[in-house]
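Dear support,

I submitted the protein below through the web form. The confirmation email said the job was done, but the results page showed an empty box. After a refresh the structure appeared. I'm attaching both so you can tell me whether what I see now is the final result or a partial one.
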Amino acid sequence: MRQPFEHVGPSAVSVLRGSRSPASWVHWTQIGILVLLLELALWTTALSREVFSLSALIWVLATSIVPGRSATRLGLTSSGFRRSIWVISASAAVASLFVCTAWLLGGLHPAFGARTTSYAYLGYALWAVIQQFILQSYLFVRFESLFADSKKAVLACAILFAFVHIPNPVLTLATFAGGLAFCEMFRRYRNLYSVGIAHALLGIALAVSVPSTFHHDMRVGIGFIHPPAIPSIVPESP
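What the results page shows now:
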C-alpha cells in the first residue's frame, strides 16, 4: 500500500503532517482578504487602484512576517537553486523560440505599448519575482497546509493565478499553465528565485511575440476592457 506523503520531499513532510490545525480559518481569511484586495486593485482606477495595490502589498508582508515561517519553507534561501537551474535554462529556450519565431515573421513589437522603455522590462522582471513570492511563498504554503496535499496546492494556486487575470483570455490560459508549472517546480525544489526568473523570461517573450491585439499590452481587469488613453510604459500584469 502506498504510504502517506510518499512522493513529498522530506522538508515538506513535517509541514503536511501538522497541517490539520484548528487555525485553518486563519489561512482562509488571509487568502480571501488578499484576493479581495487584488481584485479591487484590478477593477478600480486612479487613486483607488493605488490604495488597494499598496494595501495588498502591506497585507502580504505583514501576514508573512508575523507567523514567523522559516526562509527555507518560503523558498527564500539558496536551497534547491542548483537543482532547479534547469528550469531557467528550459524557460530561456522556450522564450528564445517565441522571440525568434516572431522576429522571422516580422511580428516583434514593444511589450507594453508604443511607449515601452528599457526600464519597463526591468520593472516587469522585478514584478515577476514579486508575483511568484505571492503565488508560492504566500499562497502555496497556505494551501499546502490547508489541504495537507502539496499536489492539490499546486492546482489551487494555478486556478487562483488564472482567476486574477480574467478577462484577458491569453493571460488567463497562460497563467493557468504557467501556474501549474511554476508551482510544481516550487513544490519539488522549494526555491523562489528559479521560478521568478523563469516567469520573467517567459512573460517578456510572450509580451513581445504575441500580437498586442490578443494580449492588449498585457492588461487585465478594467484595463483590459477600458484601455488607457495613453499607452502604459509600465506592465500591469504578468
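Response: this is the final, complete result; the empty box was a page-load delay. Residues 1-19, 230-235 have pLDDT under 50 and may be disordered.
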